[in-house]
């Protein structure tokens, strides 16, 4: 019998939660709404510290969604960052960095589909050995304004999509208008990944595997498609195609 694919969604950590003002999880409903609209059943990942638990969560699910959030600890991708650059790093979620790194490793070990959004796009790159641009305004002179927090549901810049890429196949487009709420970006791309979309200032806006046969689905985007699905159905298709790949895993 066909069952709805279970998608593990990695949430943010909140230092002061609503009930007891202690460390809690926080996740925009837009992510889980988009998964459900795409045909999947979301399961939110709890705070899990051990590799064994992360591996078991990985085994129980049919795919993983890495969501947005705070900055990634700089020592995970640059051990000798100059102090003036390190000062540009924003709020951190160190525990989350640890289990998301483990989760990416398990996704590759177990051959599960993965979709990364914003911080998730950056996390995928860091977990696989790549680096980040710590602060776009500091390190990329003349860059577009990529941090438009007051327009998070709007298409504020365009990205050019590589022909033949998974992103091009899913969207059927060579350019996409996207939202942009980030001050960091992917720097050196991890060896197993390749860039498949950039904005006009060269910022990396999407990545996929070089060898697409390695996982059933692997896509990461710097923008927030879950916030644009009402504006253009092309963004819902990203979730639908991800969930379809997860459904195939479930049948195997
Ligand atoms: Mn952007």
Radius of gyration: 17 Å
Number of strands: 13
Strand arrangement, largest sheet? Answer: 4-1-5-6-13-12-11-8-9
Secondary-structure-derived class = alpha/beta
Largest sheet: 9 strands, mixed
* Secondary-structure element order, N to C: EEEHEHEHHEHEHEHEEEEEH
Global geometry: globular
Mean pLDDT reading: 96
Query: Ligands bound here?
Result: manganese (II) ion
**What is the CA-CA span between the terminal residues?**
12 Å
Helicity range: 25-40%
Query: Count of helices?
Result: 8
Unreliable stretches, pLDDT < 50, 5 or more residues? none
Strand content: 15-25%
Question: How would you explain this protein's 3D organization?
Answer:
This protein has 252 residues and is of the alpha/beta class. The chain is 31% helix and 21% strand. The protein has eight helices and 13 strands. The strands form three sheets. It has a nine-stranded mixed sheet with strand order 4-1-5-6-13-12-11-8-9, sandwiched between helices. A hairpin with an 8-residue loop joins β12 and β13. α2 packs across α4. The longest helix has 19 residues. The two termini are 12 Å apart. The mean pLDDT is 96. The chain binds manganese (II) ion. Manganese (II) ion binds next to loops.
